[in-house]
Specification:
Layout lengths: L2 H24 L3 E7 L18 H8 L2 E7 L5 H10 L30 H7 L3 E7 L17 E5 L11 E2 L2 E2 L1 E3 L2 E2 L6 H16 L6 E6 L11 H10 L5 H26 L6 E7 L23 H4 L3 E5 L7 E8 L3 H8 L14 H4 L11 E6 L2 H4 L3 E7 L2 E5 L7 E4 L15 H19 L14
Parallel strand pairs: 1-9, 1-10, 2-12, 3-4, 3-9
Antiparallel strand pairs: 2-11, 4-7, 5-6, 7-8, 10-11, 13-14, 14-15, 15-16
Helix pairs in contact: 5-7, 6-7
Length: 457
């Protein structure tokens, strides 16, 4: 064999190697989004809690980038979830409030024409799945399988009245795709088990997966398995019963997350999986939830109701152990995940990609307007709106539809203790006008089914 022949073979081998390397590097990442329900900003050990242990979630935090100023789009469930799957403000896709079983208590109807993240991922070749809580529509047109998810195994409704019976108002909303199922066990354990089964099925798949793992813990009822509760009592001698139950429910959920992480490792999927962990709103204070030093909690437009623990982990792509104070919003997850997967978005969304921040760069958008909007019924809200706007250092909010707007400077007063509406009238007028315009935009979008049955008095 002459030298020319040897050189030719070497070059050919090098070309093949470069091609294979490009194919591996260009491979789309698997995506796992873990969204939990009502987890407070201060209810993880990695976010400052000193009476609970969350090693699994903390491992995601320590292995990725931790956001200290990440916000849920709304201080309650359905709207934030609508923002995640649409990349838009919830009131602009027909979900200004909580979707519920009975028409007189229902405050949302997800716009049928909106392009969901499930549909977008599916178009790009992903296997799409939702395991756990849906809460974005009970009628068949809105079932996850009809909104972009190939695989659904979980709960259609809002809260469960019992973690073991899996009913709401005596109705079973548990489904395996379109089939009603009645499995035995604690809901957290079931969702964990189903997620692990799904990952096992994906280990040899040709296509990447997009898994939305949506726990309903630690939402009420605060119903941890007895073993977990007794473990907390033995460890935390001075803890109240109310707090102990919530801590046990969170720790039980964390163990489920650990099982999912273990399955990713055992199947060899971990290295090419982008993991996101977040909560749909702040912690519920009257059941023991803690939101750090932030004011108030779930349902509130103060920081404790909307700022949530959020972290991204991606092996080889995100430097571990990083913390950022750059702001993000639930609706930003949609474009961020698409950006990470190399998927172009050509339709309108409101969120922005956080990928530059994940890579250690500045988003350069501190003055971006962040709107928060909620419409609700019952005696406390009477069908009216509470809302807020953050712009730079400033925040304006209405925490009750029957109270005046309040103005705060989050830089100098992160606890929102001093209302500056009277001291800064120009800033108040500027932000209140922007808030009114957003209310007009939301008011133009239908949020009830076209053929809704009138409610009888």
């Amino acid at each position: 064999m002459n030298m020319k022949h040897i050189v030719s073979i070497t070059i050919s081998a090098l070309i093949v190697l470069l091609f294979q390397t490009h194919v591996v590097s260009a491979k789309k990442p698997n995506i796992l989004v873990i969204m939990v329900d009502d987890l407070g900003y201060g209810d993880l050990a990695s976010y400052g809690a000193n009476d609970l242990r969350t090693p699994a979630i903390d491992s995601i935090v320590n292995g990725g980038i931790k956001f200290t100023q990440f916000y849920a789009n709304c201080p309650v469930c359905s709207p934030s979830r609508a923002s995640f799957i649409t990349g838009r403000y919830p009131e602009l896709v027909g979900v200004p409030g909580v979707i519920r079983t009975y028409p007189q208590d229902n405050w949302g109807y997800l716009t049928p024409s909106v392009v969901t993240i499930g549909e977008k991922m599916s178009e790009a070749g992903y296997s799409t799945s939702l395991i756990g809580k849906w809460h974005l529509g009970l009628t068949e047109e809105h079932w996850p399988n009809n909104r972009g998810f190939d695989y659904f195994r979980g709960w259609l409704g809002d809260m469960m009245d019992d973690y073991y019976l899996h009913e709401r108002h005596g109705i079973n909303y548990m489904r395996f795709n379109d089939e009603k199922v009645d499995p035995a066990g604690h809901a957290t354990d079931l969702f964990t088990e189903w997620a692990c089964e799904y990952l096992e099925e994906q280990k040899d798949a040709d296509n990447p997966f997009f898994l939305f793992l949506s726990y309903n813990a630690p939402h009420t009822p605060i119903q941890p398995p007895e073993k977990w509760l007794q473990d907390v009592f033995r460890r935390e001698k001075a803890i109240s019963e109310t707090r102990a139950k919530l801590v046990a429910l969170i720790e039980h959920m964390d163990a489920g997350v650990q099982s999912v992480l273990n399955k990713l490792e055992k199947t060899g999927l971990a290295k090419n999986t982008l993991i996101v962990f977040t909560s749909d709103n702040g912690g519920q204070i009257n059941v023991g939830g803690q939101n750090g030093n932030l004011r108030d909690g779930k349902q509130s437009m103060y920081e404790g109701g909307i700022r949530v623990p959020t972290v991204f982990k991606w092996h080889g792509q995100i430097k571990p152990g990083i913390e950022t104070s750059q702001r993000g919003l639930t609706m930003d997850l949609y474009p961020t995940l698409c950006d990470a997967a190399g998927i172009q978005i050509k339709h309108r969304i409101d969120g922005v990609s956080l990928l530059p921040a994940l890579r250690g760069h500045s988003l350069d958008n501190y003055e971006r307007d962040l709107f928060f909007h909620r419409r609700e019924g019952n005696q406390r809200y009477q069908g009216f709106i509470t809302n807020a706007l953050i712009r730079g250092d400033w925040k304006i909010l209405r925490n009750s539809p029957f109270s005046p707007l309040e103005l705060y400077n989050l830089k100098t007063d992160p606890a929102e203790s001093e209302d500056l509406a009277d001291k800064h009238p120009q800033k108040f007028q500027e932000l209140s006008r922007a808030l009114r315009i957003q209310v007009q935009r939301g008011g133009a979008v239908p949020w009830q089914p076209p053929a809704r049955v009138d409610v009888q008095p």
